[in-house]
Amino acid sequence: MSSKNASKAAKNNESATELIEDKKKLMALIDRAQDGDRAALPVLRKVLDEAPRIARFVDLARDVECSIVKKISGDDVFTQEAIPRNLEAMRKEIAGESPSPLERLLAERIGVCWLELQYFEAVYAQNMGKLTITQSDYHQRRIDKAHRRYLSSIKALAQIRKMGPAVQINIAEKQINTTGTA
Amino acid sequence: MSPWERRERGGLYYTRSRKEAGRVVREYIGSGPVAVLVAQMDALERERRVEQAALWRQEWEELDALDAYVNEVAEASDLLVRAALLVSGYHQHNRGEWRFRRELKECQ
């Protein structure tokens, strides 16, 4: 590799790392690609190659899950054990056999969105008689939002799977296969 | 305005104020030890309401923080899904359905 190419690759790597950290920049790049700018694609590929950084979002989902479990179970150690086990089974079932990092992230997202929805509904049900109209509205809006987010997380995974072999992004092996029929 | 009203004869009279159809209405409770007791009960009730409101606020803030984290996970994974689809040769038709780019299909 020439020194010019090496420095370009290093720059690409650096900008991919930056992009994962900075959502606005990533969104702008995606919009450019969406508008047909082919130059944006190599950088997007680099972003998808950054598997350990994508795993950061999986960790974030797990952290959120832990806080919700703590809130739901309080001092009940049985529930503290049971909920994460159920969620793990749910995630495995959703992610399927040997999922790609993206599928794994989406399965995590579905799990955490489902748990959040359950929690918000439980909080609302527990306080139903004590709420003022404003408080009740607030809870309802929050539940609706969580429900929409849960549905869109299922849709995102379904979308990736619907595209079939065309979206086989094997990030772990640093290989992107864009062949296939749509 | 103090809920205790001084009368012309010198005694103190306990009152409660509330809003009715946009106007402040004053309810006259009484004087003497019974009025002092009612005033103390009202003060306790006010304290309870303030504590309750603070608890609600705290719970709402906690729920908001939780919501923000879940939102961050959702937004990040949405961006990555879009990136994956674009890299794989798809484009979003009118911000709706994802379609395979014809020119890429023809190249393969």
Tell me the Rg of chain B in angstroms. Answer: 32 Å
Q: What's the order of the H and E elements of chain A?
A: HHHHHHHEE
Give the helix/strand class of chain A: mainly alpha
User: How is the main sheet of chain B built?
Assistant: 3 strands, antiparallel
Oligomer kind: heterodimer
Q: Provide a count of the helices of chain B.
A: 2
Count helical runs of chain A: 7
Order of strands across the main sheet of chain B: 1-2-3
Please state the average pLDDT score of chain A: 79
What coarse outline of chain A follows from CA principal-axis ratios?
globular
CA-based shape of chain B: rod-shaped
- What is the structural class of chain B? alpha+beta
Mean of all residue-level pLDDT scores of chain B: 86
Strand residue content of chain B: 15-25%
Largest sheet of chain A: 2 strands, antiparallel
Low-pLDDT stretches of chain B = none
Main interface by residue count: A-B, 52 and 37 residues
Task: Note the gap between the termini of chain B.
Answer: 82 Å
Listing every helix as H and every strand as E from the N terminus to the C terminus, the arrangement of chain B reads EEEHEEH
Q: Report the radius of gyration of chain A as a whole number of Å.
A: 20 Å
Total beta strand runs of chain B: 5
Features:
heterodimer, A: 182 residues, mainly alpha, two-stranded antiparallel ribbon, disordered C terminus, B: 108 residues, three-stranded antiparallel β-sheet
What does this entry look like structurally?
The complex is a heterodimer of chains A (182) and B (108). In chain A, helix 1 (3-21) packs across helix 3, helix 4 (51-73) runs parallel beside helix 6 and helix 5 crosses helix 6. In chain A, strands 1-2 form a two-stranded antiparallel sheet. Chain A folds into two domains: 3-57, no CATH class; 60-167, no CATH class. The longest helix of chain A is centred in the last third of the chain and has 30 residues, at 133-162. Helices cover 77% and strands 3% of the residues of chain A. Chain A is built from seven helices and two strands, in the order H-H-H-H-H-H-H-E-E. By secondary structure, chain A is mainly α. Chain B is an alpha+beta fold. Chain B has helices spanning 32-87, 102-107, and strands spanning 4-6, 12-20, 23-30, 90-92, 98-100. Chain B has a three-stranded antiparallel sheet, covered by helices on one side. Chain B has a two-stranded antiparallel sheet with strand order 4-5. The longest helix of chain B is centred in the middle third of the chain and has 56 residues, at 32-87. The A-B interface holds A 23, 26-27, 30, 33-34, 36, 40-41, 44-45, 47-48, 54, 57, 60-61, 63-64, 67-68, 71, 102, 105-106, 108-109, 112-113, 116, 119-120, 123, 135, 138, 142, 145-146, 149, 152-153, 156, 159-160, 163, 166-167, 169, 176, 178-179, 182 and B 56, 59-60, 62-63, 66-67, 69-92, 98-100, 104-105, 108.
